[in-house]
Amino acid sequence: MKLDLETYVPGLLLWLSNKVSASASQVYRERFGITVTDWRLLSFFKVYPWSTAAQACDLMGLDKGAVSRATALLHDAGWIESRPQGLRKVEYRVTASGSRLHDQVFALAMAREQALVHGFTSPERRELVRLLKKMLGNLDRVREVGSDGET
User: Fold this and answer.
1) Residue 42 belongs to some domain of the structure
2) For the residues 20-42, what does the mean pLDDT come to?
3) 80: domain CATH number?
4) Of the candidates 51, 89, 10, 135, which has an alpha carbon nearest to the alpha carbon of residue 40?
5) What are the angstrom distances between the C-alpha of 126 and each of 37, 70, 86, 130?
6) Is residue 13 situated within a structural domain?
7) Is 150 among the domain residues?
């Protein structure tokens, strides 16, 4: 037995994600001096002001170390501000300068999204989003497979 790499959904999703992320990181670094992880966090704190880095990790499935480094960079650059909430909990929100950066990167991110879905009809795009959300909803089931000896 062997994988059919042309139809293996996790592989196709991984390849797509890796290639889109790698090219985004290159473009964002060249144009704005940030990585794709920095952009993801900036967007997260713009949408969810006064949230924690841990909440960003949970929602987006990001590596805690990468998020910690990105949060420090965004904070040191003045793009996000923080407020402590107890001994170990810190919340963040985007500053005015971070909002300006966000808006510049946002325009490029939306253009890249349009390039990625070029040739899709509106119904196809809606169906793609619906199916991706359905897969996100199945993640708990995926985590269970193999965790209790199940194959």
Assistant:
1) yes
2) 95
3) 1.10.10.10
4) 51
5) 26, 32, 42, 6
6) no
7) no
Question: pLDDT at residue 39 above 70?
Answer: yes
Q: What is the pLDDT of residues 72-114, one digit of tens each?
A: 999 999 999 999 998 889 999 999 999 999 999 999 999 999 9
pLDDT at position 150 is 61
Q: Domain range spanning residue 26? A: 20-143
Q: Which pLDDT score, from 0 to 100, does residue 149 have? A: 61
Give the dihedral of Cα atoms 84, 85, 90, 91; nearest 10 deg: -100
Q: How many domains are contained in the chain?
A: 1
Position 39 in a domain? yes
Tell me the H-state helices in the chain.
9-32, 36-47, 53-60, 64-76, 96-116, 122-137, 139-144
Report the alpha-carbon distance of residue 51 to residue 99 in Å, rounded.
16
